[in-house]
Specification:
zinc-finger, Nucleotidyltransferase, domain 5, globular, SWIM-type domain-containing protein, alpha+beta, 7-stranded mixed beta sheet
Length: 703
């Protein structure tokens, strides 16, 4: 094959097949006689289809993950070569590159070996495969991608096939007929067992997964049955108590699961206990759905019943459902402790995606420290009303007898919150509340003892921060309800004061539940699981209610009705429509939850006469008004506000232009050129810590 030194001479290939692989392309040797690689040029938009085709290799079925990635901004280079990258991704076969377990010893080449020390990990998939390739999005031509295949064969360093049907040693006896079980099938089987699915159904799905890589075979069925039965017995016999002492037990667990821990601090006289958990899968979801998006916190779960409160960081997936990506178990709210685990979490994400950042952080507790969030993530902070709404509604229903009193009291509580925008004195609104409902002694005792001392702090936070939407509130509440069901069942009430039990429940049942939900949705399998997952939020259930089922009376804006889809003779009554503090008489709402009827009615009330704006919209208008009214004179403050406004306007205009175009190259060519100094260009894409480390090493060698 002739070696080509100019990238312009390599033709762009666009195969007609939906998914294509290495064999569908014509590869060219690019470089010099001393150093050259096999390369091919394809449209950047078809990179995902190439990766799917490579994963479907019948000889070595696998998946590729991003081992390393870099990005450059357009215009950051003054001079550049034709093969310089705008985006760089190194894809590596998921069966490599290591072949070592937690203990440091080489794993035996057996398919059904179980890692009894850490069953949540997947050391069996580390087979030492060296197959990897690079995808470069060209700096000079962003619409094209340069594929560079460094190692085509799925072999280890010794040159032997290390996974797939051609690997004779990967699965023990019968290796010629049975392929190596991939991590996806392992995790699927474990998740189904943890969720209590019958063994017959688990075995059926397990065999279906294996048969995707090989045909039906009696030996496959026999070994798969043994594997599922053995794995099920080990999981059922496993216990959270690794030691009678809870502190010693959690220390043993932390030593065995170092890959799933990003922060661990034992309790002492000076430091409080802190444990941060994030599995490899959660880290992937954090980078995937958290980058340039929102992150939310369910911050004080189990503060009364658990030994240590649980804080969960959530991202919103492709269906805008809340997905847990990290758990922090600690009672410490000190700024130093919070900032410590937040920075470690950000560093983990940036080690996978160097340009990782979030666009907003949603909190649900007015007492939560916001300075560490601003210092670490450098993003806007939003406030969610779901916690205060849920707490008030649950106690209103629990402590008041008649539904008439319940809806009037809940409406009056909403007026207390609305008073911060209506210009009404909050103290007068609270005084009216206590006078009008003085006969409701049970609720007023709860309100005056629990909320009255801190109501000023909460209202101040609500007014100072932008408010999150009802969709985000509903998604966070749905996670909270699911977590409560998983943890607070009657069979484990005696274990609530043990941290090892909490960790065990989170990393097994809850983690498996969300993994299976995402897998069912993305692979279009497990239809029952997928349907339950899609309908798990009130926002989605509200979207299925037709507009014709909502009855709004323009003459009576105090009440609205929603006809049931199952029985048209039944209608749910929603009082105070258009407000976050609307009250519905359905069973789900009476448990303190944000129901689908309230969301649907509030959506219908938008932009209608007679109904007020939602709190999130009022908060947004308040922020715009405050920005507009701030510079009162012809001062520097006016110049700064004008500059920030124009910058935000340009960004919005570029986003609108980007979303409405089919060819990104047209937009990239119109971007202004950014000139940079020579020193900055030489280290572009290299983190400052690495650059400084390299400089120190070179100086030491010179000495």
């Amino acid at each position: 094959m002739e070696i080509i030194e100019s990238l312009e001479e390599i033709p762009v290939q666009n195969p007609q097949a939906e998914d294509f692989s290495y064999s569908d392309l014509t590869w060219t040797k690019f470089g010099t006689t001393e150093h050259h690689d096999e390369v091919a040029l394809i449209p950047y938009a078809r990179v995902e289809e190439f990766i799917i085709g490579e994963c479907s290799n019948p000889e070595c079925p696998t998946r590729f993950h991003i081992e390393r990635g870099r990005k450059r901004s357009r215009g950051s280079l003054r001079e550049y070569k034709p093969d310089e990258y705008l985006e760089y991704r190194l894809y590596w076969c998921s069966f490599g590159p290591e072949n070592y377990g937690e203990g440091g010893g080489v794993l035996p080449s057996r398919k059904y070996r179980l890692n009894t020390r850490n069953r949540a990990a997947r050391p069996q998939s580390m087979r030492g495969c060296t197959c990897h390739f690079v995808v470069k999005r060209l700096y000079a031509r962003p619409s094209l991608a340069l594929l560079v295949y460094n190692e085509r064969r799925h072999v280890n360093k010794a040159g032997f096939v290390c996974h797939g049907p051609l690997d004779r040693d990967a699965i023990g006896p019968g290796a010629k007929k049975i392929p190596y079980i991939c991590n996806e099938i392992q995790q699927q089987t474990m998740s189904m067992i943890y969720l209590g699915i019958p063994e017959e159904n688990v075995l059926e799905k397990h065999i279906e997964g294996i048969q995707r890589y090989c045909g039906s075979d009696a030996t496959v069925d026999t070994l798969a049955s043994q594997y599922v039965h053995k794995l099920g017995m080990i999981i059922k016999r496993s216990t959270h108590e690794l030691d009678l002492d809870d502190q010693a037990s959690i220390k043993i667990w932390a030593e065995r699961n170092k890959k799933s821990i990003f922060s661990y601090q034992e309790s002492s006289e000076t430091d409080q206990f802190m444990l941060g958990i994030q599995t490899e899968w959660q880290l992937q979801q954090f980078v995937r759905f958290g980058h340039c998006s929102l992150v939310a916190a369910d911050s004080t779960f189990g503060i009364k019943r658990l030994k240590y409160p649980l804080c969960t960081l959530l991202v919103f997936d492709s269906r805008h459902h809340a997905l847990p990506v990290a758990w922090i178990i600690s009672r410490s709210n000190l700024k130093s402790d919070v900032e410590k685990w937040m920075k470690i979490l950000l560093q983990r994400a940036q080690s996978v995606e160097p340009g990782f950042r979030i666009n907003g952080f949603i909190i649900d507790d007015a007492a939560m420290e916001i300075d560490p969030i601003r210092d670490t993530f450098r993003c806007p902070i939003l406030f969610s009303l779901w916690r205060i709404r849920r707490s008030w509604l649950r106690n209103v229903v629990k402590k008041c007898d008649t539904i008439e009193v319940q809806r009037e009291l809940f409406k009056c509580l909403g007026e207390v919150v609305y008073s911060i925008w209506d210009g009404v004195d909050t103290s007068k609104a609270l005084e009216r509340l206590t006078l009008d409902f003085s006969d409701q002694t049970a609720f007023m005792h709860y309100f005056t003892s629990t909320w009255l001392p801190k109501i000023g702090m909460w209202l101040s936070t609500i007014k100072s921060l932008p408010l999150a939407s009802q969709e985000a509130c509903g998604a966070i509440e749905a996670y909270h309800v699911k977590l409560k069901v998983k943890l607070f069942d009657d069979t484990h009430l005696n274990a609530l004061q043990r941290v090892d039990w909490l960790v065990h429940k989170l990393t097994t049942e809850l983690h498996s539940s969300y993994w299976l939900d995402r897998y069912a949705d993305e692979s279009d399998s497990f239809q029952n699981v997928k349907e339950e997952y899609i309908a798990s939020t009130s926002w989605h259930r509200a979207s299925e209610i037709p507009d014709s089922a909502v009855i709004l009376d323009s003459n009576n804006t105090v009440v609205a009705k929603v006809r049931s889809q199952r029985d048209t003779n039944v209608a749910r009554v929603v009082w105070n429509p258009g407000s976050e503090f609307a009250f519905c008489d359905c069973a789900w709402s009476l448990q303190g939850n944000l129901c689908k009827h309230v969301i649907k009615v509030n959506t219908m009330c938008e932009n209608r006469e007679g109904y007020g704006d939602s709190m999130s919209l009022r908060s947004f208008k308040e922020k715009l008004t405050s920005v507009k009214m701030k510079p009162m004179d012809d001062s520097i403050a006016l110049d700064i506000s004008m500059a920030l406004t124009l910058q935000m306007f340009d960004q919005i205009k570029q986003l609108v232009k980007l979303s409405g175009t089919d060819d990104i190259s047209n937009i990239v060519n119109d971007l202004p050129v950014k000139w940079g100094c020579k020193k900055g260009r030489t280290t572009v894409g290299i983190p400052a810590s690495i650059a400084a480390f390299t400089k120190k090493r070179s100086q030491k060698r010179k000495r």
